[in-house]
Amino acid sequence: MIKLETSLIQINGIPPRFLLKLKKLGLESVKDLLWHFPFRYEDFSQIYKIAELQPNQQTTVQGIVKEVAMRRSWRRNMFIVEALIEDDTGAVKAVWFNQPYVKNALRPGRLANFSGKVVYSEEDICLSNPAYEFIGAGQMETKHTGRLVPIYPETKGLTSKGIRFLVKPLLENLERLKDFLPASTLKSLDLPEINLALARIHFPEIIEEAESSRKRFAFQDLFLMQLAHLREKQKLSSQKAQAVKINLEDLKIQLKQLPFELTSSQKISLWEILKDMEKFKPMSRLLEGDVGSGKTVVAALAAIQTALNDCQSAFLAPTEVLASQHYKTIKNLFPDFEGGIALLTSSQSRAYYGHNLESEIKKTSLLKEIAAGKIKIIIGTHAIIQKNVKFHNLAFVIVDEQHRFGVEQRAALANPEFKNLLIPHVLSMSATPIPRTLAMTIFGDLDISIINEMPKGRKEIITKIVAPENRDQAYAFIRGQVKKGRQVFVICPRIEQTTDSGLLAIDALRQLEVKNVKTEYEKLSQRIFPDLKVAMLHGKMRPKEKEKIMSDFQNRSSDILVSTSVIEVGVDVPNAAIMMIESSDRFGLASLYQFRGRVGRGEHQSFCFLFTDSSSASTHKRLKAMIEAKNGFELAEKDLEIRGPGEILGKAQSGIPDLAMNSLKDFTLVKTARAEAEKIINNDPALKKYPVLKTEIARFKTKYLLS
Ligand code: ADP
Ligand code: MG
User: What pTM value is reported for the model?
Assistant: First the structure.
């Protein structure tokens, strides 16, 4: 019996050159190979009589090999093998191009199946390059012909035929697998158990068998994911956190002193957050809201409440630029706050103690202040919690732009002052509007607050798709706007021209069409707008440099900023009124939406220009969606539909297996997985009755969710 964990090297009869190819596909164990599922099936299940064959048909015939011959076509420079196949209704020619070995493999007199396409050639029909399989006396089972034939993701030198050849005997000799899906779940969803599902996903008798097996595998991943989330939630709720009491009087005063009134969804979100933090149970909440909807002030108000409870908050931003912007924003929103606000990044360390007492401070001194609890709000990049920053009593962590925090990570930040360690409340914030199906799956362990309205007085951003012939006109318009005092963002997909010598000529040409920051910067600063101040920003610059360019732009020392997507998240420049996106077809809708959110933040009418050289209808349809959508959530749904979840989330960070990833579009399946998982956990919180399932969840978690 073959075991799942067995390495393919230990399986007899797999030629070494195959092992190399398998490795290339990332397949090293029996399990890897058996979980390398076909992505479609060719239907050769119907065996036709030779007399019935029609041109263009995909077919299988069964017959005796009568003659085999090989010739060389000098004109086409290839070997051609021809065989005559005969059944009781007639004979047909089969032809193979450049497969000289077929000549010796096909021995006349043998019975075989031939599956392939019927083509019309030289005034007669023939089978073109058919797959063949000899039929022994009394043999029923076939793998390449006369059935639904699985087609796999292939690699050079390892075809679907080769994979079938390997998979079939493995399946036949495989140990019996224990199914970790509860029998009740299988039954209520009418899904096949694991052994059957595995056999059927490779070699189904009818297509419905393949479909229900595929559904089972998709379901099982979604189900495991939900269980992992629910268990994490369970584990978290058994932990203790510092309860942050709400200080209503101070809150009212702070709200009054803000330069604006919170929108009602900001108020509701703030209240949901404060109500969570009032408990001894650690909060796990996601605050979702469009770009510019005002998440920062909500988080900051919660951090100030935490400070009033004499506890510390850490505010984590994805980039240094954003960290320093948050620092400035919070400082300016709460100028009287005396609890100490610090900015701590690899290049900066500064502290603010209210009433404009702002100073640069040595990093070592700042770290001491933090460890002594003298600074209540610490703003920085993720590095501040991963490196050796010692907090005095960290009770609240704010993570801008989604970052998952597991129980283990929180535990690492636990407050050592208390014997039964207290772990921090966590608020994650995201401007990427995540469709419900995705949110449920990826953030299944989080509670969600949504800010779904913009602060009053924001004007709609006029959005236009600009074709190449209208470029000059757009430049003229931009010049006019700059003369009126506005500023402009120009976004390009790339930093510099890349010419990858490994690319085919056609791909290399396409690469050239994609706009890059350096070339555009040169063009705009020297040729188009030599009289204006053009600056450039990209991710390869040093943090100090980036900081300088960003603050120059914020102070209006430059008019036009040519940048990569580094400015995608969060940057706030109210005077910027034009967002110009080059090669806009290269970006997902969610990214485009984020870019557009950089403008329209001030009192001026703002514009977004989507430049594209593409004339493809689907590109235009996608870009049009940008113009028509009313909010980010609507666009995200569209993106999910058009590009799929992998593209939206980025495969690497999403932690979701491929099959489940594709099933995320299937909201019903996601909901079913959630409901089934809840049923199991509610009946048996410790999973005592499901030991196999429990191990599987743990395995799934280490593989996908904790990275
Ligand atoms: P995001 O949700 O994208 O992080 P920010 O928190 O950066 O948005 O807020 C964008 C801008 O809107 C900031 O300048 C902020 O001060 C301002 N703002 C936030 N809330 C309001 C409000 N209720 N009314 C007016 N302006 C607001
Ligand atoms: Mg923000």
Answer: 0.67
